[in-house]
């Protein structure tokens, strides 16, 4: 499969090159040349297929023959080593739980898949290594650290803002050792992000083969299609239209859902639910795309002012706004509303959500007013324990610490403090 740059000013590349480069040389995001809908027979028999078989059928066209079938199936089995339950929260409203992986965030799926693809592509390059460089405000770093731990030929360097990630998140970044290095930056998330961007453009670091591991990388973005198919498999027997609400930051997750629909998955409508970082809801209201600097909220993994995957969504609709609005809505919610919903969900059903899922729930409820007879699914993108500072006081409960978290919480933190770009360069050299 060939990929082109959405800035249209860089050569087409293979899947392998797109994964290794991350971003095209013209700074555009890569996008597949051809998207072929799946055979309708697939949807007729989906309830008889395993998650691993579904995932293979969904993704293999995007890889072509660049990874042999048997190996791709191994990568998928390794990636999807945990479950994706669909839980009924109230009548006709379901939570698609994406947090049962090793770091308890949905980003585990993309990080595990990407790391294993890179490892495959690196297997014959004995003397060159790739360095994955990521800036994180919380969840991405942990998923990438865990996903890439021990992967041959890949070093991982994670930059995070000192004192601005939760204790659990910090432990997930700093305690693994081996090929994972954590840099604690004296600054905020934007400072980390700026340094990473600068490093990608720095010729003097070209020999480090730097690559990104956020959702701009196709190998992190595309596997996120899988769980929309899994939810469909679970809910198909209800035989009703499906509306999905994704708590959205960089819009990678929802963009994968729209790709799934392009492949033929019968989804009636998508809702991108955001916190007060509302660039996309404002765009739908005014027709003007006007990104703003991000604001801090309690659903901080979605504190994104300029969602990087939105250009991919526009490409999926050929920039046809009317067609887009038929399938897609987007609403923004304040922290107060988010907390209110968190409590309401708990009080009426006993279900413990967390701030991101709660934003997703709010958007879903709003959209369902426009759909008679539909089933709504909101994505629960992290385990409540990851946001215990918000969830415990709001609900007046004490959460039990899951084993995945327990295993890092008592490990010793190892990080290197840096304060500017020169420090980062010195570290990478
Ligand atoms: C990353 C993240 C999101 C946002 O996902 P996007 O694909 O960037 O829109 C939502 N919730 C949690 C918990 C996250 O970590």
From TrEMBL:
- Which residue intervals define the domain Tryptophan synthase beta chain-like PALP in the entry? 96-369
* Pathway given in the UniProt record: Amino-acid biosynthesis; L-threonine biosynthesis; L-threonine from L-aspartate: step 5/5
Pfam family name, one: PALP
- Residues modified as N6-(pyridoxal phosphate)lysine are 107
Q: EC number(s)?
A: 4.2.3.1
GO-annotated biological processes: threonine biosynthetic process
**Names of required cofactors:** pyridoxal 5'-phosphate
- Entry GO MF terms: pyridoxal phosphate binding; threonine synthase activity
In this protein, which residues make up the domain named Threonine synthase N-terminal?
A: 2-79
Q: Which reaction does it catalyse?
A: O-phospho-L-homoserine + H2O = L-threonine + phosphate
Class in the EC hierarchy, top level: lyase
**Please, which domain of life does this record's source organism belong to?**
Bacteria
What InterPro entries does the record point to?
A: Ser/Thr_deHydtase_PyrdxlP-BS (IPR000634), Thr_synth_N (IPR029144), Thr_synth_N_sf (IPR037158), Thr_synthase-like (IPR004450), Threonine_Synthase (IPR051166), TrpB-like_PALP (IPR001926), TrpB-like_PALP_sf (IPR036052)
UniProt keywords (A-Z) are: Amino-acid biosynthesis, Lyase, Pyridoxal phosphate, Threonine biosynthesis
Family, per the entry?
Belongs to the threonine synthase family.
This one is known as: Threonine synthase
Species of the source: Flavobacterium geliluteum
What lineage is on file? Bacteria, Pseudomonadati, Bacteroidota, Flavobacteriia, Flavobacteriales
Question: What gene is this protein a product of?
Answer: thrC
